[in-house]
TrEMBL record:
<keyword id="KW-0418">Kinase</keyword>
<dbReference type="InterPro" id="IPR006083">
    <property type="entry name" value="PRK/URK"/>
</dbReference>
<dbReference type="Pfam" id="PF00485">
    <property type="entry name" value="PRK"/>
</dbReference>
<protein>
    <submittedName>
        <fullName>Kinase</fullName>
    </submittedName>
</protein>
<keyword id="KW-0808">Transferase</keyword>
<feature type="domain" description="Phosphoribulokinase/uridine kinase">
    <location>
        <begin position="22"/>
        <end position="150"/>
    </location>
</feature>
<dbReference type="InterPro" id="IPR027417">
    <property type="entry name" value="P-loop_NTPase"/>
</dbReference>
<dbReference type="GO" id="GO:0016301">
    <property type="term" value="F:kinase activity"/>
</dbReference>
Length: 197
C-alpha cells in the first residue's frame, strides 16, 4: 500500500467511524486525484468500508453554457463549467443527511445529461474528487479536505500528445483559472492535508 493511501485510511478510520464522513480530494488537473481515489477505493473495499465516490466533472453543464458566452475563457471554466449554486443546494447540501440523491450526469459525446440515482448508507465515507473543490461556495461542506500539490510542468506532461498541442487553450482557459483559484482560495493553505501529487 502506498504512503498516501495509508495516510488517508488512517484519517478515515479516525474520523469516519459511526457517521457519514465527507472527504474532499482536491487538486488541479492531472495532479493524481483519480489515481489516488482508485487506490483508496480498492483498500476500502478490502476493509469492507461503506463508501461512495463522486467525480465533480460528472456534473458539468452543457457546452453552450460554458463556451462562447462572451466572457473570458478562464472565467467560463472557473465560474460556468458547473452550476455551483445548484450543486450547493442539491448535492453538497444533502450529502450529510440524504439517503437518496438524483444527479444530472453529463455525457460529453452527446452533450446531454442523464439522471443518476444514488442510494447512500449511514455510516459511510463519501468522497468528492475534482478541481476547485475548495471554492468558497463549497468549502464548508467537507469534514476533511486533501489537496494534491503537483507542479504544472509535471501535470502538463500527463496530458495526451494531442491535448498538449492545443497550448493556447491551456494558456487562456485552464491555467488562468487555476491561477485564479490558487490566488483566491489558497487551497494548499486551507486544506487539512497537502500531499505531493
Amino acid at each position: 500500500m502506498g504512503e498516501n493511501e495509508k495516510i488517508l485510511l488512517e484519517i478515515i478510520e479516525n474520523n469516519g467511524v459511526g457517521s457519514r464522513f465527507i472527504l474532499g480530494i482536491d487538486g488541479l488537473s492531472r495532479s493524481g486525484k483519480t489515481t489516488l481515489v482508485k487506490k483508496l477505493s480498492h483498500k476500502m473495499k478490502e476493509k469492507k468500508t461503506s463508501f461512495h465516490v463522486f467525480h465533480i466533472d460528472d456534473y458539468i453543464v452543457e457546452r453552450e453554457k460554458r463556451y462562447n458566452t462572451g466572457n473570458e475563457e478562464w472565467y467560463e471554466y472557473y465560474n460556468l463549467q458547473w452550476d455551483t449554486d445548484w450543486l450547493s443546494r442539491n448535492f453538497f447540501g444533502k450529502l450529510k443527511s440524504a439517503n437518496h440523491l438524483i444527479l444530472p450526469v453529463y455525457d460529453d459525446e452527446s452533450n446531454t445529461h442523464s439522471q443518476q440515482e444514488v442510494q447512500l448508507s449511514n455510516p459511510s465515507v463519501l468522497i468528492v474528487e475534482g478541481v476547485f473543490l475548495q471554492r468558497k461556495e463549497w468549502r464548508s461542506f467537507y469534514d476533511y479536505v486533501v489537496y494534491l500539490d503537483c507542479p504544472r510542468s509535471k501535470r502538463f506532461l500527463r496530458e495526451s500528445e494531442d491535448t498538449q498541442k492545443n497550448i493556447t487553450k491551456f494558456e487562456n482557459r485552464y491555467w488562468k483559472a487555476e491561477e485564479f483559484y490558487v490566488n483566491t482560495e489558497a487551497p494548499d493553505k486551507n486544506a487539512d492535508l497537502v500531499l505531493k501529487g
